[in-house]
Amino acid sequence: MKFSKLILFILSVSFLVSCGSDEMDELRARLDEAERELAQNNQSTTLELVKSGACSIVSQGPDGALLECGDGSSFFIENGKDGKDGKDGDSCEVLELEDESGAVIKCGGADQFSSVLIRHGKDGQDGQDGQDGQDGQDGQDGQDGEDAISQVVEFVDPCGDNGMFDEVLLRFADGTVVAHYAGGGNKQFLTILVPATYRTTDGHACTFTLTDEGDIISYN
């Protein structure tokens, strides 16, 4: 500890010269730095002495700590001085561009400042189309629909009623005209007619015409 005070004394004497205010401020700063280094060295030395068991802390207060060593010696270690407060940091503000393409970040005061321009990212290019997927499996066959049945909407006797074995015409709901001849027993004859002129085969030889419009004209 005496050695540390001696170094500070020598530094203080060497700096006691006639200087300007700026030089004195620099000298004070150098003295403060030297004191801090000595305080750090003292602290390191104290920790080593305490860890090794050669010395122990007897009392500790706001100004420092009193140590006693195994050889009967004791010394007081002063706490280091607080460092100077750092300078205030610069404040920044974000200014959006009028065209909304980005923003300017400005830091510092009115006299001295720095700024940087940041642009918004652009949309990337569209990726390539993916490959077509595999065809799906065929669906199950649907059920068969019911057979359509066209109802008879009109009976036409082109030759009039001429007995039980008379040839008649049947008109269905879909417009189809069928000639029906009952010859007795199981003798049933059916013929689908198309537009034309016909003569009955029931023995009466009656003539009639089926027009394109589906009209039946009898010449009986």
Describe the structure in your own words.
It is a single chain. The chain has 220 residues and is an alpha+beta fold. The chain folds into three domains: 2-78; 87-119, no CATH class; 152-218, no CATH class. 21% of the residues lie in helices and 32% in strands. The protein has two helices and 13 strands. The strands form four sheets. The protein has a four-stranded antiparallel β-sheet, with no helix packed on it. Strand 2 and strand 3 form a beta hairpin. Helix 1 packs antiparallel against helix 2 (21-52). The longest helix is centred in the first third of the chain and has 32 residues, at 21-52. The radius of gyration is 62 Å and the shape is rod-shaped. Residues 1-19 have low confidence and may be disordered.
Identify the notable features of this structure and list them briefly.
3-stranded antiparallel β-sheet, 4-stranded antiparallel β-sheet, disordered N terminus, alpha+beta, 21% helix, single chain, 32% strand, rod-shaped, 2 helices, 220 residues, 3 domains, 13 strands
